[in-house]
Design a protein that fits this description.
Layout (H helix, E strand, L loop, with lengths): L1 E3 L18 E3 L5 E6 L10 E4 L27 H9 L2 H16 L5 H9 L3 E7 L4 E8 L5 E4 L1 H4 L7 E5 L5 E10 L4 E6 L21 E6 L7 E14 L11 E6 L11 E3 L5 E10 L16 E5 H14 L5 E2 L2 E8 L2 E10 L14 E5 L2 E2 L3 H10 L5 E8 L2 E8 L1 E2 L3
Antiparallel strand pairs: 1-18, 2-3, 4-15, 5-6, 5-8, 6-7, 7-10, 8-9, 9-10, 11-12, 11-14, 12-13, 13-16, 14-15, 15-16, 17-24, 18-19, 19-20, 20-21, 20-22, 22-23
């Protein structure tokens, strides 16, 4: 076995970096400033990008690649898309009319029923910041105006600006940021003057299996109340939509082939009943080759934060203004056998941490519960999926011997 070392961990299990990829390009082949593409895992060949829109006064970027931070569509030719979005005044009435059809039609599909149920709980989020303006999506949590979205949507305009939210009935509300959890790419907003919104229903994402129906609802390219469908393609995919920052989000995600495009970030991924199973957060795109103008756009590889994780974090933020994530208390590197990643080798175990009782440097973690661990980032994602205080079973290779160790996870803010 060979060991790959690099700045990929910290003693608290916070985000671990991947490897820099090519710079992101827009549909015209222009470089996206300050943005890089990253592999999802060593086994994927695409690049992962936050499912949002970006513009800084230039034409709308239709084919975003890489890890984008922000949901921006304003300015220049992007105003055309914004005009389409603004004309969504018909969106609310269309959704209402469709709901009437759902109640009376005997030929209703699962997708139509799911979208009619969930669409009133999905909103469009507009952000104006220091460096740009744009839009993403969000999911209604309460009647009085709490909304869940991605942290990178809120940060998309460079932060420090105005946030507004348009609900399904076309009403535009000013909003404030209640709190964020960047390590899981989540944020909660509070709408001003909202009192009769339709809260989303959250399903148990642990019950989701490959092949289940998946319906994505959001505002791709600024087009509010857009519905696409597909299936759950995989579970337990490690993705990092925040790029190569040491504090970037690392998510144990659901993968779907439902079309997710820039602007879907923060929107809902729902099941056949319209219950939220995930919060859409990232897409994979094929990078441009030599002589090509840009990326291939949506390729049916999208990712969502599981609803159990998203709802837990949202509930804590609504209650306390902040949330906590689980930690193991180790620093790790990825072990490889040739080109194949085989586990996460512990290079440091923090004294007094949850790991200190049973684990020691040199141990190689190959699984957390039934979730296989091939890389150090897999280990981060698996730990963050759990809540502080949860008991997890680690499969550990020590020398040639494999054993299981039960660990009660700690709290990152302690």
């Amino acid at each position: 076995m060979t060991e790959h070392r690099g700045p990929i961990g910290d003693p608290h299990g916070h985000a671990w970096r991947g490897t820099d990829g090519p710079e992101a390009l827009d549909a015209l082949g222009r470089h996206q400033p300050g943005t890089h593409a990253h592999p999802v895992t060593p086994t994927l060949t695409g690049t992962v990008g936050a499912a949002d829109n970006r513009s800084t006064g230039r034409p709308l970027r239709m084919g975003l690649v890489g890890l984008l931070a922000g949901a921006l569509v304003g300015g220049g030719a992007g105003a055309g898309v914004m005009a389409l979005s603004a004309s969504d005044g018909g969106s609310a009435s269309s959704a209402t009319a469709r709901a009437d059809v759902i109640e009376t039609s005997r030929a209703t599909t699962d997708v139509a029923a799911a979208s009619a149920t969930a669409a009133p709980s999905v909103v469009t989020v507009y952000v104006t910041g220091r460096t740009g303006s744009g839009s993403g999506s969000g999911v209604v949590l309460t009647e009085d105006g709490f909304v869940l979205t991605n942290n990178h949507v809120i940060d998309g305009g460079g932060g420090g600006g105005q946030v507004q939210v348009r609900t399904v009935d076309g009403t535009l509300h000013d909003a404030t940021v209640v709190g964020t959890e960047p390590s899981l790419d989540l944020a909660v907003l509070r709408l001003e003057g909202a009192d009769s919104l339709t809260p989303a229903t959250f399903a148990d994402s642990d019950e989701v299996v490959v092949g289940d129906l998946a319906v994505a609802i959001g505002a791709p390219l600024g087009l509010s109340q857009t519905v696409t469908d597909g299936i759950i393609s995989a579970t337990h995919r490690t993705v990092s939509p925040g790029g190569d920052d040491a504090d970037a989000a690392v998510i144990d995600a659901l993968q779907t082939d439902a079309a997710i495009n820039p602007g879907n970030s923060g929107g809902a991924l729902v099941d056949h009943s319209g219950a939220v199973i995930g919060i859409n957060t990232a897409i994979a795109s094929v990078p441009a080759g030599p002589g090509q103008a840009g990326s291939g756009g949506n390729i049916g590889v999208g990712f969502a934060i599981p609803s159990n994780t998203a709802h837990r974090i949202a509930t804590e933020i609504m209650r306390d203004g902040t949330a906590s994530t689980a930690v193991l208390g180790v620093r790790a590197t990825t072990v490889t056998d040739g080109q194949v990643a085989t586990g996460a080798r512990l290079v440091e175990v923090q004294p007094g941490s949850p790991a200190a009782a049973d684990l020691r440097p040199g141990d190689v973690v190959t699984a957390v519960g039934d979730r296989q661990v091939a890389t150090s980032t897999d280990l981060t994602a698996a730990v963050r999926r759990a809540a502080p205080g949860d008991s997890v079973v680690l499969t550990v290779l020590r020398g040639a011997e494999s054993s299981e160790h039960e660990v009660v996870l700690g709290r990152a803010d302690v």
